[in-house]
What does this fold into?
Amino acid sequence: MDIKPLRYFIAIAKTESFTKAAQQLGVAQPAVSMAIKKLETDLGLILIHRADRNVGLTDEGKKLLIHAEKIIQATDEALLEMMELQGLNQGEVRIGISSMLGSYYFPSILMAFRHHYPSITLKVIEGGTWELQKMLENGELDLSVIVAETLPDSLETQTLVRGEMLVTIANDHPFSELDKIPPKAFFEEELVMFKEGYFHRRIVDKLAKEANMTPKIGFETNLIPLIKSIIRQGFGISTLLAMVIEEDDQLITRSFDPPIWLDLCIAWRKDSYLSKANQAFLEFVSEHGQNR
It folds into this structure.
């Protein structure tokens, strides 16, 4: 089977449009339409609903999509491996990083790697931990930084660093008189939280459930400077990784009681081919992280 129609089919499924799929693929729309028609004829099935400009997959199309994505992913990895056997390196790393780590832990690592490997392109995708994990599993990312909690068997991980989640408060907050903060006391305060889907929020939600408390969330934002500003002005408290707190933030931190430690890992798919560029990045990050 020619796999080109499968690429067209996947693009149509994602864009829900023949026109948008053609634009994304850089081909003429009639070519896309003809390829899909031939694919349906070869399979003897209708794969796509075409009614009043609304494009959607049939039940048969939805089943084919699962296999098509796996076929394209395996084909791309096989081609990359064959190219690298000939000494041809695409030199690209697609990595997913959350806001907190992307802003405070990774900039120096990424710049140092780029300096060491100037021919390798870094594509950094920011997102929530859960979203990035799904993108990794679907082959949209080569690597992703995640928190090692419950991981699927399909992923391989390597620990980068262990970080403590600290209660973060203004200088004049009553918690400043305490050595450690019990979760129940934390959840009695107005909170400034990341949005759902980010590991910061997932940790807090899990902690609230264990304490049988409902978080009082006054602000939701993924902008760390804004979170710090809100805390500093006394409009709420939060919890941030120790690495995020800087001396000039004018904020106070305290450990939870008991302390909350997170293992931050870099992950990749077990069944995927890691290019030489990705292998170089893994080795570099591992060495850099151990030296921090």
Observations:
- The chain has three domains: 4-85, 92-161+264-290, 162-262.
- The two ends are 50 Å apart (CA to CA).
- The chain is about 45% helix and 25% strand.
- The mean pLDDT is 86.
